[in-house]
Specification:
Blueprint lengths: L12 H9 L5 H10 L3 H10 L3 H7 L3 E4 L5 H5 L8 E5 L2 E2 L4 E2 L2 E4 L3 E4 L1 H26 L2
Length: about 140
Amino acid sequence: MSYIPLKADAETAQQRFDHVLCQAPFEGLKAILHDLSPQRENLCSVVLAANSFVELLARLGYRLTVTRQIHVQDCYSRVGPAGGIKSVLPYYDIPSQSSLPMLVNLDATVTATPKSAVFFEALLLDLKKQLSATLIQQQNI
């Protein structure tokens, strides 16, 4: 049996996922994923298997609800069992100068505005594109 060493710069899919997710454009998506999934080791496979943001949330055990507007400061006062909010994820996208908040609710729903739902859908697709390109590139090495 022969031993073929891996290149020093070769990364596992999970390591590459963590590396790409830590990049600045994906910090909002990273906050959402880390808040929704306590099992970090499954995130890579869940993200790669999901075809949309709604499907990603469903695979993590959540359902997306869309509301016209979210008042972030008001939501902080409703965190906890009485208000039904598990966590508030205020995200401000500097390039588009947009506030894109999301709420993780205790009833296994994620509340978003239409604008934030579209933004994170596009962000997920960009993440998947980068991950897929990297995985294909590593397979060709």
